[in-house]
Fold this protein.
Amino acid sequence: MLSLLRKYACVSCVPYRSSHAFIDSLFPARPRVSRLTGLPLIAVIVAGCVFLPQLPVSASATIEVYYAPEDHPIDHVVSLYGRATKYIYVSVYGLTAPSVVKALVEAKHRGLDVRVITDRERLNDPKQHSAVKTLRLAGVPVRINRHDALMHLKQVVIDDQINTSGSANHTTSGNRYNDERLDVITDSRLTTKAREKFLAMWNDHERFVVWTE
């Protein structure tokens, strides 16, 4: 950096040698680190990288990737809903697919804790309004954003073990026609983080409110 400042110094304002002296005064000389002094420092840095505790990742953690239209990713989400045993937390921008609504209602009837967060503006779509209303009438609590930005997540959290992410909305288009991606992640640590994010949004009463139509 010092050499660059010297190169581009405004020599028209001050003599060339004076400009160098002025720049050198801004950056006082630093003591050189000898080779012998530097080696222990490098060793300490390397040891820190090796021995600092790392967040554990389960040896059995897996990530399955599905693409639309060829893999019908939302069909895989519906299958996950059918196998859930404790809870399903859904935060999704678009939710109109009848198969998704049916699977969530059935999960609620099995006694699972089912919750949905979706985007306020999307409820202007009659299909989404009908789908969300069906969920609410089945006893599934729904919250929407009250802030002006989008609630644009496409995330599902299931049973502290599985979470999904990607670009695919819970819609027929997102399942069969659009170019989309869905990641199904089986890992308790990452799923815990996804659950905590969902619950933080759910409990943020300034940014999200109960949808009551």
